[in-house]
């Protein structure tokens, strides 16, 4: 699916954001990410660290893919959207357990952050041409009939 300049710019911005977030998982914000791992998943600190490190690597891979796998950008966009869904419980955990991290030190800030996850999902799908693709194909098929 052909994407326009604004979609490409957003795809590149998301890719850079994911690389930055992934590197942060592995370095300077590692402890803050560890606090976000839901306690129902595990209380073992080494397993929590493994989750943070693994998700950081996945973020770097997805970020690089958003930048360089342009031929497969729709698949990468879908994979990134799925990743955003998978990490959403960490955001919910931060809100429900009143965890201060990333400058989110009030219930209001943590609550508002929850609404950014659907926006990220939308951006991952739209910037890669994954969103509305089926509708466009169906419309073209109907018009060409």
Quick tags:
74% helix, 145 residues, 7 helices, single chain, mainly alpha
Largest sheet: none
What portion of residues is helical? over 70%
Assess the beta-strand content as a share of residues.
under 5%
- Give the beta-strand count: 0
The 3D shape can be described as elongated
Low-confidence stretches: none
Q: Whole-number radius of gyration?
A: 17 Å
Structural class: mainly alpha
- How would you spell out the order of helices and strands? HHHHHHH
Q: Tally the helices.
A: 7
Mean pLDDT: 89
C-alpha end-to-end distance: 21 Å
Explained architecture:
Helix 1 (5-26) crosses helix 6 (116-127), helix 2 (30-36) crosses helix 3 (45-68) and helix 4 (73-96) packs antiparallel against helix 5. It is built from 7 helices and no strands. The mean pLDDT is 89. It has 145 residues and is mostly helical. The protein starts with a helix and ends with a helix.
Short note summarizing the structure:
The chain is mostly helical. It has helices at 5-26, 30-36, 45-68, 73-96, 107-114, 116-127, 133-143. It contains 7 helices and no strands.
Write the layout of secondary structure elements.
Elements: H1 5-26, H2 30-36, H3 45-68, H4 73-96, H5 107-114, H6 116-127, H7 133-143
Helix pairs in contact: 1-3, 1-6, 2-3, 4-5, 4-6
